[in-house]
Amino acid sequence: MSKLATFRIDDEDWQKFQELAKTQGTSASALLVNFIRSSITSPEVTKRQESGDVESAIQAKLASIDERIENAVQLKLADVDRRIESAIQEKLVA
Predict the structure, then answer these.
(1) What was the pLDDT predicted at 45?
(2) How far apart are CA 5 and CA 22, in angstroms?
(3) Long-range Cβ pairs for the range 22-27 (8 Å, 24+)
(4) Where in the chain does DSSP place strands (E)?
(5) Which range marks the domain in which residue 49 is found?
(6) pTM greater than 0.70
(7) Are 24 and 36 in contact (CB under 8 A)?
């Protein structure tokens, strides 16, 4: 059985996340589901569950994922900016 989950997120952040997912050939929903599954099955979480430190493990994993997503989005946006600038320069030269 699956559950429909809803949450609030800034519009701009959601759009960037959707763009990131698209560049990876997937959807934002699929990316989130994969994140959740990997978070709850990671060796780090399992190890901390055994020691009773589940909340810390999840928070650490979330912070790590947030940072990786932000970095990937920033890299992609920088690439898009370079492509736009290049296209503009080509039009100006032509």
Answers:
(1) 57
(2) 21
(3) 23/76
(4) none
(5) 11-93
(6) no
(7) no
Q: Mind listing the pLDDT tens digit for each residue in 38-71? A: 887 766 655 655 555 677 777 878 888 888 898 8
Is residue 44 a contact partner of residue 57, using CB atoms and an 8 Å limit? Answer: yes
User: Does a structural domain hold residue 24?
Assistant: yes
Domain count, the chain: 1
Tell whether 49 is covered by a domain: yes
Exposure string over 47-60, b if 16+ CB within 10 A, otherwise e: ebeeeeeeeebbee
Tokens 């994993």 appear where? 61
**33 in a structural domain:** yes
Q: In this structure, what are the phi and psi dihedrals at residue 48, rounded to the nearest 5 degrees?
A: -70, -30
What whole-number distance in Å separates Cα of residue 77 and Cα of residue 80?
Answer: 5
At residue 21's C-alpha, the angle toward residues 10 and 75, to 5°, is 80
Between 14 and 41, the higher pLDDT residue: 14
